[in-house]
Write a structure and sequence with these properties.
Blueprint: H1 2-29, H2 37-44
């Protein structure tokens, strides 16, 4: 049971890392302006 919880946390962190590293490229492809502020703030951190 504990192993499954740790695996879920690992996959969640990995997915977030991939999404955050791809976010600046995606924003650039979409024009970069006019996006909600939480996307800009997330990409900076």
């Amino acid at each position: 049971m504990f192993t499954m919880i740790l695996l879920g946390l690992l996959l969640s962190a990995l997915g977030q890392t991939i999404a955050l590293s791809a976010l600046p490229t995606t924003m650039g492809d979409l024009g970069g302006s006019g996006h909600p502020s939480w996307i800009r703030d997330t990409a900076k951190s």
